C-alpha cells in the first residue's frame, strides 16, 4: 500500500483491519497543558512543586522544561529511530526482532490494532524477566520486548543512552512531586524508578502518514482518521514522552472529552503522564490520564516514551503520609509483578486497576 506521497507504507493492514481502526474525522480542541520548570530553585521550586501537584490532580498530564537532557542526544535518538523505521520491512524484522523488540500493527496480545510500528526495549534488567504467565504481559510489554541479554547494536546503544537521560528526568519529576505532596523522604517515589531493579521500558513508536485509501479521503471504513494507538492508561508510575512534533496525541479530560496535545513551542520539553501505579501510590489523589494517538497527518509521527516502573516485587499501596488522619486505602496491596500479570490478554482500553480497588 502506498501513501499519498507514493512511499511504501510499513504497516500492512487489510481492509477489515482498517475498518476496525477507522475513527470519525473530528479534531478535538487543544488541551491546556501546564509547563513545569524542573530547573527552578528557591521559592520558584516550591511554586513549581505546587503547580506539578495541581497538574497531576486535574489532568494527570503536564510538560517539563529545564530538564537538562542535551537536545543533541534527543535529536540523534529520534533521527536514528526514523532511519530504522525507513528500512525495508524485511530488514526491520530480520535485524530487529529480538534485539530491538520490533513489532507492527499489533499492540499487546488482546487483539488491538493500530496504524503503528514500534520498538520496545527493557532499559533495566527487571524488564527482561519473563512473567510466569508467559503470555504477553501488558499492552506496554509484548512478548517481543527486547532483553538486555540480546546482543547490542548502535541504535540500541543510543536508545540506552537516551533512556538513561530520561530516567533521570523521571526521577527529578518524582522528587519534585514528593516535595509538592509534603512526603518524606523526598525520594519516596523517585527511588522506585532509580533503583537498579526498577522495571522500566522504552517504547519508540512510528506512525506513518495516513494512507491514501483511494476513496477521496473518506474511507478506511468510513472514517478520515485512523487509530494509531488506541485509548489506554499507562500502567507504570510515570511515562515521559517526547515526539517529533507531528500531531496525533490526545488526552481525555475530567469530563471525558478528548483534547489534542499541542506541540510545545520550542520543541524541547517532555510530556509526562500519570500512570495507574502513581494513582495508587497517591491513593487516588493523582489522576492517571487516558490517552490515545489518532493518525490524520501527512507527516510521520515518531515518539519515544520512557515508562518508569517499580521493581517487580515492590508492594504497591498508598504512601503512608497520604493516608494520614485515619484515611482509608482505596486499593488493596499488590505487587507490580501481580499487576503486570493481571493485564495479560486484556484489551488496551480495559481498566486493569478496578480489580484492585477496595
Ligand atoms: O506514541 C505516542 O505518542 C503515545 C503512545 C503511548 O501512549 C504509549 O506508547 O503508551
Ligand atoms: Fe501510553
Structure description:
- By secondary structure, the chain is α+β, with helices and mostly antiparallel strands.
- The protein has one domain: B-lactam Antibiotic, Isopenicillin N Synthase, Chain (Jelly Rolls, Sandwich).
- 27% of the residues lie in helices and 22% in strands.
- It contains 8 helices and 15 strands.
- Strand 4 and strand 5 form a beta hairpin.
- The longest helix has 28 residues.
- The protein is globular and about 60 Å long.
- The chain starts with 14 loop residues before the first helix and ends in a 16-residue tail after the last helix.
Please describe the topology of this protein:
Blueprint: H1 15-21, E1 22-23, E2 35-37, H2 42-58, E3 61-65, H3 71-85, H4 89-101, E4 102-107, E5 112-122, H5 154-181, H6 190-194, E6 201-207, E7 225-232, E8 238-243, E9 249-252, E10 258-260, E11 270-274, H7 276-281, E12 291-295, E13 301-308, E14 315-316, E15 334-335, H8 336-342
Parallel strand pairs: 2-3
Antiparallel strand pairs: 1-7, 3-11, 4-5, 5-6, 6-13, 7-12, 8-11, 8-13, 9-10, 9-12, 14-15
Bound molecules: 2-oxoglutaric acid and fe (ii) ion (FE2).
2-oxoglutaric acid binds at residues 140, 203, 205, 229, 234, 241, 243, 249, 291, 293, 303, 305.
Amino acid at each position: 500500500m502506498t501513501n499519498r506521497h507514493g512511499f511504501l507504507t510499513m504497516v500492512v493492514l487489510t481492509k477489515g483491519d482498517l475498518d476496525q481502526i477507522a475513527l470519525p474525522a473530528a479534531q478535538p480542541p487543544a488541551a491546556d497543558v501546564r509547563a513545569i520548570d524542573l530547573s527552578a530553585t528557591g521559592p520558584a521550586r516550591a511554586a513549581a512543586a505546587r503547580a506539578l501537584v495541581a497538574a497531576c490532580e486535574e489532568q494527570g498530564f503536564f510538560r517539563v522544561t529545564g530538564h537538562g537532557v542535551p537536545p543533541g542526544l534527543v535529536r540523534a535518538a529520534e533521527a536514528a529511530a526514523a532511519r530504522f523505521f525507513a528500512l525495508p520491512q524485511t530488514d526491520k524484522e530480520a535485524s530487529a526482532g529480538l534485539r530491538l523488540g520490533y513489532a507492527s500493527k499489533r499492540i499487546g496480545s488482546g487483539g488491538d490494532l493500530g496504524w503503528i510500528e514500534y520498538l520496545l526495549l527493557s532499559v533495566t534488567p527487571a524488564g527482561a524477566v519473563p512473567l510466569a504467565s508467559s503470555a504477553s504481559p501488558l499492552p506496554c510489554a509484548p512478548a517481543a520486548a527486547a532483553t538486555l541479554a540480546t546482543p547490542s547494536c548502535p541504535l540500541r546503544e543510543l536508545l540506552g543512552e537516551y533512556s538513561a537521560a530520561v530516567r533521570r528526568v523521571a526521577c527529578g519529576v518524582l522528587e519534585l512531586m514528593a516535595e509538592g505532596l509534603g512526603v518524606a523522604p523526598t525520594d519516596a517515589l523517585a527511588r522506585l524508578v532509580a533503583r537498579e531493579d526498577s522495571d522500566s521500558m522504552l517504547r519508540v513508536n512510528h506512525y506513518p502518514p495516513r494512507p491514501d485509501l483511494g476513496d477521496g479521503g473518506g474511507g478506511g471504513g468510513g472514517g478520515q482518521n485512523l487509530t494509531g494507538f488506541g485509548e489506554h492508561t499507562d500502567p507504570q508510575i510515570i511515562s515521559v514522552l517526547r515526539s517529533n512534533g507531528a500531531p496525533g496525541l490526545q488526552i481525555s479530560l475530567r469530563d471525558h472529552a478528548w483534547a489534542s496535545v499541542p506541540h510545545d513551542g520550542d520543541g524541547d520539553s517532555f510530556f509526562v503522564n500519570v500512570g495507574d501505579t502513581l494513582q495508587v501510590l497517591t491513593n487516588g489523589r493523582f489522576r492517571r490520564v487516558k490517552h490515545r494517538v489518532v493518525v490524520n497527518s501527512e507527516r510521520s509521527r515518531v515518539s519515544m516514551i520512557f515508562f518508569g516502573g517499580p521493581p517487580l516485587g515492590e508492594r504497591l499501596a498508598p504512601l503512608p503520609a497520604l493516608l494520614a488522619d485515619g484515611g482509608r486505602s482505596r486499593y488493596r496491596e499488590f505487587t507490580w509483578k501481580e499487576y503486570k500479570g493481571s493485564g495479560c490478554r486484556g484489551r488496551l482500553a480495559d481498566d486493569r486497576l478496578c480489580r484492585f480497588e477496595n
